[in-house]
């Protein structure tokens, strides 16, 4: 078990993702706007954003090859909504497989803190709470965290070098 909160790069990358989302949302980038409104509580998904965005950072630190792959198959100008071809792209199969594999191998890694009790939260805890079984999570119906994860990985892919 590794505590990613104690790494030098992890908190900075989480902050980078949050600031990138805010900056790009102001520039009318659809997926950035979707993340920001979720962070602010739209559809009561603020917990999803607060937990899954660090999980996305954890995943790309574990699997940096995903950055190049996602960057090649997505565009910041495209919105990933249910009807978009980008949201159903085969690239997300690689992300799903990577998440399932990393949860199995390193799911006890600490990637977040509880807000009230300041209790460490593991990658597996977050996946179980917010992601569908397709992504290695515990949600059998839905998994609104899936879209947060995909959008966060997409933004990271477009701003981080690979």
Folded structure, characterized:
This protein has 162 residues and is mainly alpha-helical. The chain has one domain. The protein is built from seven helices and two strands; from the N terminus they run H-H-H-H-H-E-E-H-H. The chain has helices spanning 9-26, 30-39, 46-62, 65-73, 91-106, 123-130, 145-159, and strands spanning 110-113, 120-122. A two-stranded antiparallel sheet has the order 1-2. Strand 1 (110-113) and strand 2 (120-122) form a beta hairpin. Helix 3 packs across helix 6. The radius of gyration is 14 Å and the shape is globular. The chain starts with 8 loop residues before the first helix and ends with a helix. The model has no long low-confidence stretch (mean pLDDT 89).
Pick out its properties.
162 residues; mainly alpha; two-stranded antiparallel sheet; 7 helices; 2 strands; globular
Compressed to H and E, one letter per element, the order equals HHHHHEEHH
- Quaternary: single chain
Overall form = globular
Major β-sheet strand ordering: 1-2
Would you tell me the structural class of the helices and strands? Answer: mainly alpha
Count, helices: 7
Binned strand content: under 5%
User: Mean pLDDT, as a whole number?
Assistant: 89
Query: What is the helical fraction, as a range of percent?
Result: 55-70%
How is the main sheet built? 2 strands, antiparallel
Could you name the ranges where pLDDT drops below 50 across 5 or more consecutive residues?
A: none
Q: What is the count of distinct domains?
A: 1
Terminal CA distance reads: 25 Å
Total beta-strand segments: 2
Question: Rg, please?
Answer: 14 Å
